[in-house]
Amino acid sequence: MLRLRHLRLRAETSAGPFGADLAFGSGLTVIWADNTKGKSTCMQAMLYALGMERMLSPRREIPLPHAMTNYVEDDDRKRHTVLESTVALEIENRAGQTITIHRPVKSKLDNRLVTVDFGPSLTNPDAKARRRNFFVSDPGAASREDGFHYFLENFIGWDLPTVKRYDAPDGKLYLETVFPLFWVEQKIGWSSIPAAIPTYLRIREVHKRAVEFIMDLDVYRLELRRQQLAEQLAANAQEWRACLDEAERSVRRSGGRIEALPPKQTSILDQLSQAHVLIAENAEWLPLSLLMSRLRARASALGSAPVPNVGSSADGLAEELNQANKRADDLNATRLFAYSAKQIKDADISSLARRIKSLEEDLQKNLDVQKLQRFSSSVVEMTPERCPTCEQALIDTLLRQEALSAVMPIEDNIEYLRSELRMFKDILAREQEAITELNRNIEVSDRELTELYALIRSLRTDLVSPNTSPSLAAIEERIRTENRVRELEEMETTFQNMIDQLKAISQEYAKLLAEQAFLPREKLSQTDSVKLSQLTRIVREQAKQFGFSTFDPNEVSISDDSYRPQKEGFEIGFETSASDAIRLKWAYQLGLLELSSVEKTNHPDLLVFDEPRQQSSARVSFQKLLERASSAKARGQQVIFSTSEDLTVLRGIIAGLDCEALIFPGYLIKPLLSPSS
Amino acid sequence: MPFETQLRKLFDAPFSFRSRPEPIAGDLRMSWGISVLLLSLLYSRGRKASFQKLQFLAHSVRIPEGRDDVRSLLRAELRPSDISVRVEPWLNRAISYAYALGLVSVHKGKVVSLTDKGLEITGDIQKSGALAEEGVFLKEVASKVTDALLQRIWRMEDLL
Hints:
The complex is a heterodimer. Chain A is of the alpha+beta class. In chain A, 47% of the residues lie in helices and 16% in strands. Chain A contains 15 helices and 21 strands. In chain A, helix 8 runs antiparallel to helix 11 (472-518), helix 10 (410-464) packs antiparallel against helix 11 and helix 12 packs across helix 13. Chain B has eight helices and three strands.
């Protein structure tokens, strides 16, 4: 909440001090003064005190007229040069905290300096309040602790959202873009409905973001959350893939492969417990657990028996060597076969790649032809249907005309090439899969061969050793078996670790999916829709009350896309008269204010209307407006309305209303009587 | 049973076959060939070129390997005799059509030059964004490929 309590303008001039003091009521306050008497100076001065000058223009100039910067006129039309001037504004927030903002206008001080008294210095000068300096209208004013807008945002009790920008990384929604929704300034404020929101701050869809913030709609939060979820899901999938790849590599190194593991992340943990490792052993794939128990049994058998002598096992050794040699021959044959199959596949793959490349080139040419046909027809047709010389029909080719009977239209030709490309790419993927499988087989047989050769070597050594020496083959088998058991144990640990990791990823995935399912399908949340229909209701009611006549006010609704008033899905534009546009603007902005008393919004419960400069064509009776606005007090809201309407008319209107009237017969900024005089 | 009779038995509704129009390579389309011709002339000195030069450019612009060869030749990394060149039959037709459409003119049956209308079209071709690779190549080499160099390539003089 933001409540304006008191405004003070002070100008030190060549003819002594000048100034103005405006005390605002808690409900409706009507300010009256004749034209060019300083009414708008006061209204602009409030914006200036709040550091909102960039709401009016991107330039960093002081948005105040001559009265505060150059010279003041007294009631006798005499001019006095302004030597120094300041504005001060006392405001209050929902918590009842009152602060006073001082900002120099014409001064030796830098006008980017804002001084805040933490107390009601204007209405209670005796209160000695703590002071603090802030800076404004410089980069960082909205985000740094010493920035005035950062302070003001917190003071009002807002938490402005982070929004997408055109040119820079995401940034905060600025106060300057939100203020126009409850502060209608005289010069540009009336130019659009709902509000003249500055776009030069390069915030994407800034009009929507500002309305969403003031109405506290969920829609943008939902949209952001949806995007975040999509990104998190993609990251989750990537993590899964990376974990899987890593595990597959390490299992493959030990001659194994992982089975029954889903290639994409899953939220069903059961699917993970089905995964297991297979190890190639003597040309068949055995489950890791089975192989391990076998090898362990073998290792313990070998370990418990004494190492045999060469002599006691000589016959067996010869036979074993024979077997090993045979097995090595078999394996070599398989390996050769796999290598030649691989060569063929390699050749296939490179010819497929060549084919895909040339198809892609041809596709590019076809796309070029399509562009040429679409573009150059403005001057002359480069694909004539008839011969320019003899008027015979032509088909679109540079081959001999008799060579083809009909040529595919270029669009079909492009589609044809694309489907061909798709087909060849599919074949390529399949071939690559096959070659991976072949490589795996080769790796397995390589590994087994290495072991066999080692066995053959030790068998041979045994056969030529003295009978009494211990069998080298037996010792080596024992060591090899024990090593293998250790290696497989390590692999099992790696695999189990991976499964644990995947389980964590899975749980994260399930959580993300659940959240995605929980988000509403519609763009707007249910409360959003309620708020928009409430706003529509209030706007219609008021448009009727204010005498909106271009069409039936019941046809006005608030677009749930642009949040602008619309009629039958079309934004209301020039078809309304200028005075109806003003009525609709009143209705919308008062609507936002009233909505805040029935729904939870971020509206500051404050509305400021600075009446547009004399536009005789758009003089609209604001009796009904003031009647409606005067109900603000009962809702604890504040409305400030400045006008130069005929004073007798105005007095008639406000006589029966509960409102504060500040009537200034001459200039608002007057010579101040010094206490001594 | 003939195939068509078998098919007719399978479907209960009457149907007929229609021959499909034939797909052709993109570089055999009229607009592609004519555009390449016009761009070749645009980037040649005086916006004109001999048949011989146009044949050479048309042949080399068609595929990336051809373009790379010519670039290597101009950097003297390849000799003229390393470059293969052949007569592109489509080029003569492209010239005929372009002539009939008033985009080029032919002098004494030897030299082809760009007309004002043809020049206007090259602007459109560039605006359309088509033939990007080809355009870059032609801009780079067309003015550097001289008739003397062409003589050496066509006649394989280096081998004599």
